[in-house]
Inverse folding.
């Protein structure tokens, strides 16, 4: 049905800017007050919550790391007992991977993707709200269990048979498995939203070759989530079944197999690394051009490399299992594929170096983090090529060499770009700049602290120190380096503390940013900082990869949308030609209530299989109430 | 920033169907998630089979009749399902309502056969890994049927309500049909896996 003539006065076409902004604000704003908090579906508010929650988990996980460093600072220390230590290293890994790294990257996507593609809200905004609450409750569940001394103690990958019913009685492993369910449901929901936002809600004219690299990166990440996370959900669910109702998936005595767990876990676990790393590639590729004053070198090569990395990441999982005794041919294949993924990574690195080389870099804090990222990630990549070789891996498997390697890759490859991204986009999100002076200190402390903490771990690993030991004997030659590592970790922690202080202080007292403080070229900078509830007064129309550099500071836009209901433009997948004026759902309390019903089901099912039957009823009722039309203008068609 | 209007969109429809609709793509994305889950479950079945000296372990192959009848019912259900989708496309409310009622029957019928299928396996989930994986395969697909049945029932109520005659609802009916086709399609490899692979 075409827009009726009677609805013409409600269109934005002839309104002047002030009236238009007032009308859009009335339609899109989140009401203040108690229920507004739980009912909002604004992607920016939800992304801010996601970011804040993920950073809280980062700092909590950092405190756990410091506790471990305290215990390991000298031989036979007695600060932490072996059982608590098992819980702490399990919590540290689980928390950092599932409650920090993946959610924080998705949070960045939730905030930036709708702005960068020039739309007014994420696709399926209520699902987005639901995903946040589910994630939050999953995180609270894990940390509550830690507070009650019943936290999982089986490592972040919870290998069977240790995590199985025979060797881990009690509910610790179940809590780990169910925390997985919480976070994966949340992650999958966000992935679907991102895919549909990128496919269908891009600004008119933003054809595939004009999509910002960060948006490409988030799209590839979302597909990795969609294809990889079912594996870990299958694994964790069957683990709970083995423990609760006596299925025999992982029991070799009854036809099951312990290695099946490792296959399932790493079929998810390796793409997981790229779920974290690929968004970081997008961040770096967005930050660099802004500060070197020239467009990114090799857009096509970079995007192709992103996609190639995503595909190859599914062919690597067995390199985590080189010492379990698989057939030699299989191992050789996975050695080859592990080395092959260095190729697209190399393409990315050379594109960035070329961008830097050909431009005039201005070394602001975000660029410092990018440089720190390149140095650190290349070092992590080199040890990665080393452990891709089976004989070498056999020597260093389960030693601190591997601990050093994956911290170089994960912290160097994802946390450095993320911190750079925080300094870069903080002005957009909060409307104020972070401190450049403090930022340099933050970078210096974190960069130096990181390398002093983690580089010696390579040596400790080569000297034979195993992972996950709660202490070591004085006659072993590890004490000196361990003390050095523990002291260095204080430098690293100071850097993060300073970062926290800078972020909190700038929130109130930072210099006002204006809409585009860096002179950047992508659409999120076309609107005010922070953006209004409706993101853009009028939907932008795009004719290049750098829409803000075209037309001498003028923004080409579309008109003809309604202002009395939440409306945005749907465009075609390839060319982004306008297809319809689709509505976007209003605020609703039902996603929150559905997430509570879901949480009850999940927690209950740790204790009884009947929870799946009876607990599903409130979930179904909440979902029906969520989707049932309420007769709002958004339902018109 | 200063703005210049270069595109007029007021003539665009307020909702579009099929590939122009975000919910269509959302449904596809969820099908991709569930499809990966089913593919993995089948891979696990074949993996466990490759380890076992005899397959099935400790039980005869499942009886064929219940599963085969269910397969026949599911395949036949595609015909009314496609019809409902077409009627929804041409916005014929009365036919859509009747078609959805038929689809509810086609959602319940497989569940009856499914109850017998669990018995036809001749093994419990806790006896060995073979029992575990066939129960999980059947259980997963039963959840699939149940989810779509509840969805169809709610949608039927909606189509009989004052909210029914709306392009948006017709789009929902189409997406629901798309999802049911997926439910049928995923069953075929699972059926082959549970009933015919042990007979090879």
């Amino acid at each position: 049905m075409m827009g009726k003539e009677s609805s013409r006065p409600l269109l934005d076409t002839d309104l002047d800017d002030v009236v238009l902004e007032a009308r859009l604000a009335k339609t899109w704003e989140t009401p203040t007050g108690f229920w507004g908090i739980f009912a909002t579906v604004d992607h920016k508010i939800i992304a801010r919550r996601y970011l804040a929650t993920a950073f809280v988990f980062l700092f909590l996980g950092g405190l756990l790391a410091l506790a471990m460093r305290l215990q390991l600072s000298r031989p036979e220390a007695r600060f932490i007992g072996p059982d608590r230590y098992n819980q702490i290293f399990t919590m540290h890994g689980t928390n950092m991977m599932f409650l920090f790294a993946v959610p924080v990257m998705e949070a960045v996507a939730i905030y930036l993707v709708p702005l960068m593609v020039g739309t007014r809200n994420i696709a399926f905004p209520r699902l987005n709200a639901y995903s946040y609450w589910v994630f939050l409750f999953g995180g609270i569940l894990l940390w509550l269990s830690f507070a009650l001394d019943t936290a999982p103690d089986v490592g972040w990958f919870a290998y069977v048979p240790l995590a199985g019913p025979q060797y881990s009685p009690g509910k610790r492993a179940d809590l780990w498995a169910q925390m997985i369910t919480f976070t994966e449901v949340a992650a999958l929901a966000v992935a679907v939203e991102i895919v549909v936002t990128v496919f269908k809600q891009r600004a008119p004219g933003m054809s595939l070759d004009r999509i910002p690299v960060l948006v490409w990166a988030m799209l590839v990440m979302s597909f990795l989530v969609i294809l990889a996370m079912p594996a870990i959900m299958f694994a964790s669910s069957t683990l709970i079944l083995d423990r609760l109702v006596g299925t025999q998936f992982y029991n070799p005595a009854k036809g099951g197999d312990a290695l099946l767990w490792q296959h399932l876990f790493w079929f998810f676990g390796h793409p997981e690394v790229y779920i974290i790393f690929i968004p970081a590639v997008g961040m770096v590729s967005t930050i660099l051009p802004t500060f070197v004053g020239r467009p990114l070198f090799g857009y096509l090569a970079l995007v192709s490399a992103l996609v190639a990395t995503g595909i190859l990441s599914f062919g690597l999982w067995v390199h985590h299992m080189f010492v379990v005794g698989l057939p030699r041919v299989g191992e050789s294949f996975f050695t080859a594929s592990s080395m092959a993924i260095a190729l697209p990574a190399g393409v990315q690195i050379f594109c960035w170096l070329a961008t830097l080389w050909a431009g005039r870099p201005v070394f602001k804090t975000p660029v410092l983090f990018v440089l720190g990222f390149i140095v650190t990630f290349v070092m992590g990549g080199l040890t990665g090529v080393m452990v891709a070789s089976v004989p070498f891996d056999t020597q260093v498997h389960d030693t601190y060499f591997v601990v050093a390697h994956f911290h170089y890759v994960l912290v160097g490859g994802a946390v450095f770009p993320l911190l750079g991204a925080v300094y870069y986009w903080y002005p957009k999100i909060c409307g104020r700049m972070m401190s450049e002076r403090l930022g340099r200190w933050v970078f210096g402390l974190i960069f130096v602290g990181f390398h002093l903490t983690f580089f010696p771990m390579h040596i400790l690993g080569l000297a034979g120190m195993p992972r996950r030991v709660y202490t070591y004997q004085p006659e072993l030659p590890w004490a000196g380096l361990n003390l050095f590592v523990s002291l260095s970790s204080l430098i690293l922690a100071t850097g993060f503390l300073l970062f926290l202080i800078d972020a909190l202080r700038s929130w109130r007292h930072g210099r006002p940013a204006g809409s585009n403080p860096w002179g950047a070229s992508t659409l999120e900078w076309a609107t005010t900082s922070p953006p209004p509830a409706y993101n853009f007064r009028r939907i932008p129309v795009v004719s290049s990869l750098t829409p803000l550099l075209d037309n001498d500071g003028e923004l080409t836009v579309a008109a003809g949308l309604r202002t009395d209901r939440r409306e945005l433009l749907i465009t075609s997948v390839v060319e982004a030609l306008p297809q319809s004026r689709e509505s976007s759902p209003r605020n609703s309390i039902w996603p929150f209530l559905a997430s509570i019903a879901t949480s009850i089901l999940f927690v209950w099912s740790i204790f009884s299989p009947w929870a799946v039957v009876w607990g599903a009823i409130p979930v179904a009722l909440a979902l029906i109430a969520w989707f049932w039309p309420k007769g709002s203008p958004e339902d018109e068609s | 920033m200063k703005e210049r209007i270069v595109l007029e969109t007021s003539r665009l429809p307020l909702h579009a169907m099929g590939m122009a609709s975000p919910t269509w793509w959302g449904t596809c994305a969820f099908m991709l998630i569930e499809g990966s889950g089913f593919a993995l479950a089948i891979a696990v079945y074949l993996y466990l089979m490759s380890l076992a000296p005899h397959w099935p372990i400790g039980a005869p192959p499942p009886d064929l009749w219940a599963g085969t009848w269910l397969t026949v019912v599911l395949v036949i259900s595609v015909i009314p399902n496609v019809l409902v989708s077409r009627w929804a496309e041409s916005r014929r409310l009365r036919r859509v309502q009747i078609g959805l009622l038929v689809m509810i029957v086609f959602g319940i019928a497989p569940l009856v056969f499914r109850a017998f299928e669990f018995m036809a396996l001749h093994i419990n989930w806790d006896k060995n890994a073979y029992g575990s994986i066939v129960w999980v395969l059947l259980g997963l697909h039963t959840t699939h049927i149940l989810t779509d049945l509840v969805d169809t029932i709610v949608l039927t109520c909606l189509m009989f309500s004052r909210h029914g005659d709306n392009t948006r609802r017709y789009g929902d009916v189409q997406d629901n049909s798309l999802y049911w086709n997926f439910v049928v399609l995923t069953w075929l490899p699972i059926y082959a896996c549970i009933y015919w692979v042990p007979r090879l």
Notes: Residues 22-199 of chain B form a domain with the Four Helix Bundle (Hemerythrin (Met), subunit A) fold (CATH 1.20.120.80). Chain B touches chain A through 55 residues (CB under 8 Å). The beta strands of chain B are 2-8. The two ends of chain B are 69 Å apart (CA to CA).
